[in-house]
Specification:
Layout lengths: L1 H19 L4 H8 L8 H23 L19 H17 L3 H7 L5 H19 L13
Helix pairs in contact: 1-5, 2-4, 5-6
């Protein structure tokens, strides 16, 4: 049942990307081109998503002790910025800026077989594989120490 709802959520997300035009890398690149052909539509899509999601999460957390398909809500608890997070965010941002895709729209645009997508997606998957198989070099701290 959990996989079915994951699939349905992914389909709704993909349809939303297509309807909003965010599967087109030119939209993303124009959003990043602040001093050229700037297109603020990506900001409106993000704002609309937040306007729908935030009240939904608030209602869900207020009305339920556990999620429907898991034993606990898995909410991030860390609030520090570590080098691994900053490095990953920088690599993601550089890839997004150069390719005009982030993972969701890239997969949504894959059936269009545009050359940019056919280049971006294999490199994205390779990067994900490398990230998963790269040893964690950040120093481990013992509990109770700073």
């Amino acid at each position: 049942m959990k996989q079915l709802f994951a699939l349905l959520s992914g389909l709704v997300f993909g349809i939303g990307l297509i309807v909003s035009g965010m599967a087109d890398p030119a939209k993303v690149l124009n959003f990043l081109d602040v001093f050229g052909t700037w297109d603020p539509s990506l900001a409106f899509v993000m704002g609309g998503a937040i306007a729908v999601t935030a009240p939904g999460f608030a209602l869900l957390f207020r009305s339920r002790q556990t999620p429907y398909f898991d034993s606990t809500f898995r909410v991030p608890t860390r609030n520090d910025l570590e080098p691994k997070l900053l490095t990953g965010a920088a690599i993601f941002g550089i890839g997004w800026g150069l390719g005009g895709f982030c993972p969701g729209p890239a997969l949504t645009a894959l059936p269009l077989a545009a050359s940019g997508t056919l280049i971006f997606v294999p490199f994205m998957l390779g990067g994900m594989w490398i990230a998963r198989h790269t040893p964690d070099l950040t120093p481990k701290t013992k509990e109770g120490t700073a």
